[in-house]
# Entry
Amino acid sequence: MGFLQGSKPLRHVDEWDEFVQRRYTPGRSEADFRHYDAEANPKIAEFYRFNHANQTLDYVLRKEKQYFGLKRGQKSVWEAAEYLNTLVDDSDPDTDVTQIEHLLQTSEAIRKDGHPRWMVLVGFLHDLGKCLCLYGEPQWGVVGDTFPVGCAWSDQVVFPQYFRENPDAEIPKYQSLCGIYEPNCGLENVHMSFGHDGYIAQVVKPYLSDEALYMLRFHSFYAWHHHGAYQHLENEKDKAMLEWVRKFSSYDLYSKGHSKPDLEQLKPYYDDLFAEFLPEKMDW
Ligand SMILES: [Fe+2]
Ligand SMILES: [Fe+2]
# Structure
């Protein structure tokens, strides 16, 4: 299993988020994005090499079976957030924000801009699925750009050259444009590479609206929401939801680095917010 765990883990899972943030720094051109090369980012490149090589349709189906039944017990949102906060890896406590702080920075930025309460809630929830790392899943199976599996990979996915090492490259059916799917079948019917997005969407699926669930499920699907790829799988609903996903993405990317949120002061607001939409405890 050494290969599957990756030989050079990222220093911490937020290193991937930081890479994405640099990739989409306002003012950077599409050409800059294309020029992301392995030499400039050796650890990030190694991370994507493992991600792209191992996220096969078979792997995704196994992980969905393992986790989407939500058999890991019940937790409230606060309990899930505190659990996620125990994920410290190798991060620097002086400069890095904690997981809860990232969630609150995102949700508070959304709140300050006057968006609806359900969207503030999405801001708080969006990365709770990273607890998959605490369940023992490797970094490349928790964070990173997501993409459909079981069909041809778009070259709009970052580091597309690493898909050559994916065993699905040898399966002609999976290499046709739509692969195992019907054209315009809708992204909800597509298996996405496994990660924290799909997992948190599954946890809150009974309670939230389509807009909220799209933001959660597809927030790392940059090839779609930033680059316009995979339109051959989109249906009308996806097209309607895209603007919401894009709106959310700007908060995920650019709310970091704001002042540290004061958890004690904010807690009553979030207690009310969680109670408005979610049960006391949810299945995880
Ligand atoms: Fe995320
Ligand atoms: Fe995030």
